[in-house]
Design a protein that fits this description.
single chain; about 120 residues; alpha/beta; YeaO-like; DUF488 family protein
Length: about 120
Amino acid sequence: MIVLKRVYEEAASADGKRVLVDRLWPRGLASQDADFDWEKAVAPSDALRMWYGHTPERFAEFTRRYREELTSPDRAEAVERLARLAESGTLTLLTATKDPEHSQAEVLKEVLQERASQSPAT
């Protein structure tokens, strides 16, 4: 199971493995207090992130471009790591954005779910 949460929400035991998927560290959070891992290699490029600017009208195009970026070798390796975590239990993708449903974390969640549904059952 893959869950999406804001990084500022309190951790819950049902969260399983918690991973921040933003490129930038969340404002107001001290790294020594982090109760999650950080996989910034899956974050969109700075150019794409800046172009998108969390403008909901651009989300469809952002999704297309970001999915394309996820196929690059560096990002594909990070996606693979997250897919393995999701296979072993609950994976909670964390983001600092105020609108998680229109964020890279939502797109990444969909990509990981699609990947899991295409994998042969073991």
